[in-house]
UniProtKB/TrEMBL annotation:
Organism: Virgibacillus dokdonensis
PROSITE patterns xref list: HTH_GNTR (PS50949)
SMART domains according to UniProt: FCD (SM00895), HTH_GNTR (SM00345)
Protein name: GntR family transcriptional regulator
SUPFAM superfamilies from the UniProt entry: GntR ligand-binding domain-like (SSF48008), Winged helix' DNA-binding domain (SSF46785)
All copies of domain HTH gntR-type, residue ranges: 13-80
Coiled-coil residue spans: none
Gene: mce2R
Gene Ontology molecular-function annotations: DNA binding; DNA-binding transcription factor activity
Record carries keyword Iron: no
This protein's UniProt keywords: DNA-binding, Transcription, Transcription regulation
Pfam families: FCD (PF07729), GntR (PF00392)
Amino acid sequence: MPIPVNHSKPVRQSAKESAYNQIQQWIIDGTLQPGEKLNDSELAQALGISRTPVRESLQLLETEGFVQMFPGKATQVTEVEKESMKDLLPPLAALQALAAELAVDHLTTDVLDLLETTNDRFAKAIHSENYYAALKIDEEFHQIIVDIANNPYIHRIIAHLQAHVRRLFFHNSIVLTEKSIEEHAKIIELMNNSNKEALSPIMKENWLRTIDEIESLQ
């Protein structure tokens, strides 16, 4: 089980939180491959913590669908199923649209500037064909909106769904296009104009278009 030794360890977190965040990240980015067996002793040694918080984090990751535990036998990373995109993206799109509507009521000039500069960075990543960076910046763009919406329940559910979507995007080499740049710009414009009625459908389209693009490649 190859585990990096030069990863950055989160600070001001409990051992359980640190283990959970790092193992989840390794699963998302493919460091820990689908179907790979996990050894809690090796994970504990790599993370510099005891086995107990590692086991606790693996139990949590199992409830979230990232690992599957077979008592007395093994713990394995779950498989990546491209078809699950059809189940994940619609609820995420709906919540992202709702977050955008709520964010309009908390909008400031600084937030608008941040969204615009983030979209500029996103555009540069796409134009330079750095699609991995584009995926991360795209998530950053949407997270700004979710944070400004200031609804802890939406924030929590989106974080859970987003983690699975991130894994699917990375493993399936999803390529974001010029269309996403244009949609981001339109989202900023509609938020600035407080046009919630037009904002919701374009936010949903920004997420759901990926389903159609994947199906067209099959």
